[in-house]
Amino acid sequence: MSYEQTTVNPYLTFDGNCQEAMEFYKAALNGNLHTMPFEGSPAEVPEEHKNRVMHATLTFGSAVIMASDSMPGMPITHGNGNSISIAAADVNEGEGYFNNLSAGGAVIMPYQETFWGAKFGMCVDKFGVQWMVNCELSKES
Asked: In this structure, are strands 63-69 and 11-14 parallel, antiparallel, or unpaired?
């Protein structure tokens, strides 16, 4: 994947369930997913690690989310200091993203009109990842 301008993309790390999580995000965000397992790569990993995801790229609209499973011997700790923020093209798209991502997870703030002239919601998905979905009301379709 090449970029025509400098970009910043979230990179998520999972502990063996990256494929499942990224498939969930692919469906929730109506995206395109490419994954590469450790098997077949030059990385030396234990046999039980070969089917884990070495790298995944999910694209939807102009957005990109990348992810992988953790390396052997490198446990991960999910924190609450990070969120993925989506700026939706219209309020219905935003509501769809929010409903899909919060399914099986927890709603922190319902997707609703805000004082800053947008519809906004916050949730934690079933994989422990925090999401913020925002749509400026002037972008309503």
From this structure: parallel
Contacts of 102 (CB under 8 A, 6+ apart): 121, 123, 125, 131
What average pLDDT is seen over the chain? 88
Looking at domain 11-69, its CATH superfamily turns out to be 2,3-Dihydroxybiphenyl 1,2-Dioxygenase, domain 1 (3.10.180.10)
CATH class of the region 84-139: alpha beta
Closest Cα to residue 88, out of 119, 57, 109?
119
Residue 119 tokens read as: 């519809």
Cα–Cα distance between 122 and 85 in angstroms, integer?
A: 9
CA angle 33, 38, 39 (to 5 degrees): 110
State how far the Cα of 104 lies from the Cα of 12, in Å rounded to an integer: 19
What is the value of pTM for the model shown? 0.82
How does DSSP classify residue 34?
E
Side-chain-facing half-sphere of 39: CA atoms under 13 Å: 6
